[in-house]
Each structure stands twice: as structure tokens, then as C-alpha cells.
Amino acid sequence: MKAQKNIILVPIDFTPVTRCALDHAVALAKLLKHEICLLHIVSGDYYERRLATYTDTLIQKDLLKMGEEAIGDSKIKISAIVREGNIFDDIGAVAKEIDAYLIVMGTHGTVGLQKVFGSRALKVITNSTVPFVVVQKKMQHTIVNGFKDIVLPLNLTKESKQQLGWAVHLAKKFNSKVHLITTQEKDEFLKKKLEANLAFAKRALLENGILYSLKIVEGHDFAEQTMEYATHINANLIMAMTSENKELSDFFIGPFEEKMINNKFQIPVMCVNPRKDIYISQGILGF
Hey, is 119 helix, strand or coil? Predict the structure, then answer.
């Protein structure tokens, strides 16, 4: 993985759920010795209406005050950006500009991202090359020691190797255990393909010295089974991978991933978009 600026980006709209996202980011920044950048996006129309009474400088001051309250006595470096634009394009754009390591974003519980951002909400995630960690309004799953138990759903796609790469990367940073979960395939061809993916995952985890477990489930609701398993083992992170729409050269979040993001147990979810500039060697991410 290339050297990055070690910045965690946190979109802030001054609601309690974004303060929760900031608390998660602070916990991660303390462990990783990273910086935090707070981002507030102002839409063009609203931007023009309020310029006379509330300038970018004042917003920036409010962001920095919020950040300083969250970090307490720690030495975490806090910065703030105010950007005119829209959340769908500009969160990902700013993350790329500052070379962010992660984006930590809050949602409003089981009603999900639609409640926060409207019907195009999931584009916020799919428009970014930087992974999102999506958290809900309560910090029920403490991460003061990092993501110690990571649930990694495995499927038949080649993109799942990038998901594995991020799981390995995080597990090495936090000394985590990775919990693989997959479905029981009856079709012989699909079964062999899944077994090959499992073998690759096991080998990558072993070669990187990472503890792991494997859960194979049967049934039709893999999303529900994954969430139940994650809460049973007290996981504090679930991995999710978007899919590529080759016809539109775009990414989309499927029903499984959306259920993970909005999970009723409020477990943080890491969303990763497939990237052509990433390669996986023995489970290790490379750029």
C-alpha cells in the first residue's frame, strides 16, 4: 500500500449522528496516529442565501470547535473544509484531493442513508475510491481497541479479493480476528468456485499471521444470517463490497450490502468499491 497522508475524513452536518461518526473517527485516529479532517458540504442555493449571516469562516470555526471537543486532551491534528457543492460528488472528491485513508460517515439508524440524504443516498458511497466506514447513531460497538473482530462475507466474485485485502490490512493494524462467512452451494460448478475463493482467503490470512474462523450457512437470507452471526460474535466491523455495472461504468450497492449498511444491530460497516489500480498479493493490498 502506498504511503498516504493518514487522514480520516468525516462529513459533518451538525446532527448527533455525525458527532457519533466523529467519535468513531477519534477512536481510530488515536490508535492509528492519524489526522482528522471535518468536511461540511453546502448546496449552491443554500450557500447564496446564507452568505450574509454565516460565512465559511464561521462554519469552519464551528467544525474545529466540534473536533476539539471530540478529541479532548489527545494530540490528534484536526482540520476543517467547507465546500460548496453536493454530497454525492464532493465527499468522494474531497477524499481524493486530500488523499484520505478512510471516510467515516454516520447514518440515522435502521431507516438508513435514505433518511439522511434522500433517494440517491447510496451514490455518496459509490462515488468514492476511498473506503467508507458507515456508523449509526449509537456507539454501541466500542472500537477503542480498533476493529478486533471483522466479519467478512465471501462470495463468488473476483472483487471479493479486494474486500479480503482490506480485511487483511485492517487485521494487521489492529491484531484482529477475521470471521469468514459464506453460503453452502449445491451446484457443483459454483461449489468449486467458492471453494477456490475460500482456499485463497484462508491462505492469505494464514500467511499474514491472522486468526480466522469460518461459518458456512444454509438458507435464503444470507444478509440476515450475516447480521445475526456478527452480533453473536460481538463483531465491531462488517465488510461490504459494491458491484460494478460494466454497461454504465459505475458501481452500485445491492440488496445485501444495503441491508448490511442499515443493520439493526448498528454494527459499523466498511464499504469498498472495486478499483483497477489495486492488486492483491498474498492478501496484501497494493496500489
Answer: coil
For CA atoms 264, 232, 183, 242, give the dihedral sign: positive
Taking the model in full, what pTM does it have? 0.86
pLDDT tens, position by position, 59-98: 899 999 999 999 999 999 999 999 988 888 899 999 999 9
Structural domain range at position 205: 149-286
| Bridge-based pairing state of the strands 35-42 and 7-11 | parallel
Do the Cβ atoms of 83 and 35 come closer than 8 Å? no
CATH number at residue 20: 3.40.50.620
Residues 34 and 155 in one domain: no
Query: Are the C-beta atoms of residues 235 and 242 closer than 8 Å to each other?
Result: no
In a domain, 141, yes or no: no
Q: In terms of domains, do 158 and 119 share one?
A: no
Q: Residues 192-227: pLDDT tens digits?
A: 888 988 999 999 999 999 999 999 998 778 889 999
Ramachandran quadrant class, 188 (left: phi over 0; alpha: psi -120 to 50; beta: rest): alpha
Q: Number of folded domains in the chain? A: 2
Contacts of 96-99 with C-beta under 8 Å, sequence gap 24+, read 96/128, 96/129, 96/130, 98/5, 98/7, 98/9, 98/37, 99/4, 99/5, 99/7
**Rounded-to-integer distance, Cα 97 and Cα 77, Å:** 18
CA distance 241 to 160: 7
